[in-house]
Amino acid sequence: MADRSPPKEGQTYRIGAVSRLTGIPADTLRVWERRYHVTTPIRSDSGTRLYDSADVGRLTLIKRLVDRGDAISSVANLSLDALRERLRSADLIDRSPVARTRPWRLLVSGPYLADRLRVEASGAADFECLGFLSSREGIFSFDRDPAPDVLVLEYPGIHADQVGEVHRLLARSGATHCVLVYGFAGQGVLEQLVSDRLVARRSPIGMADLRRCCQAFRPVAPPPSDPLERLGVDLARPAPGPKFSASELAAIASARPSPCDCHRHLVDLISALYAFESYSRECAIREGAASAAQALVQACAAQARALLEEGLSRSLDLSEGDHCDVDTTDSAE
């Protein structure tokens, strides 16, 4: 897929800034581009990889969906609106107490356990085995598309200095839960390991034992939504334009003063935020591409300014109503 030409206008971001804004490691992003064409980078005259606001918005949503368990291949080429709708639908499903509708996806690691479960799993309709690995090292090269629901790990013996390794393997596998099958372990070590995401069982175990472990896992709550997203900050959307012109703001500020001068203070805040937005844009233009920090504060400033403008507009309407809402009963008499 050919690279795009630099846009005539609009903010662009280097891959490091995109990585920080979206949470996608730069190496992962390059793989997604090469394998799934998730984005088509813009190329500057010097050959630098650049991304626009729409790219950042899509990648942010894609990262959230992949973290929830969607295969990257199934979401890589969806439009921004389609990604938003898919995420909204996923949020509704996560909040609903529905029964499990698909088999548990398992990734099994361990020489004895892999051989045993490979035989037993063939007739288990409620399990989908993604792989049987003879060693734990295989987890690092395992293709996580789709990601497993449960990682089944075999340890002949588990010691305190291996607790961190177990958690790293679980994170690397992409699984939500882990069943640790061990031969020998101290009680203190097991207490460090066991959590809502991980259960430990003494070997040997079969598919019936594994089924009970999976059924006992409580649903993992979806990650809390980004506070900035809840406030309406969206890097993929153009910044909201000004609601008032400079002359309109000046007229409001110079109107008949009230005891607290709230409207004048709001005008000062709005003017300061608009000036800061302009300053931030000029910084990005001078540097050739916006940094992650610049993009974030500029979007936040624009949203804050739009919110204050809306507040000022409604406050002016209410003030007009207050002036009209006068009880003339006494004067009429």
Automatic annotation (TrEMBL):
SUPFAM superfamilies: Putative DNA-binding domain. The keyword Cell membrane does not apply. InterPro entries: DNA-bd_dom_put_sf, MerR-type_HTH_dom, MerR_fam. It comes from the Bacteria. Residues 12-81 form the HTH merR-type domain. GO terms for molecular function: DNA binding; DNA-binding transcription factor activity. Keywords: DNA-binding, Repressor, Transcription, Transcription regulation. SMART domains: HTH_MERR (SM00422). The keyword Transcription applies. This is Regulatory protein MerR. It comes from Thiorhodococcus drewsii AZ1.
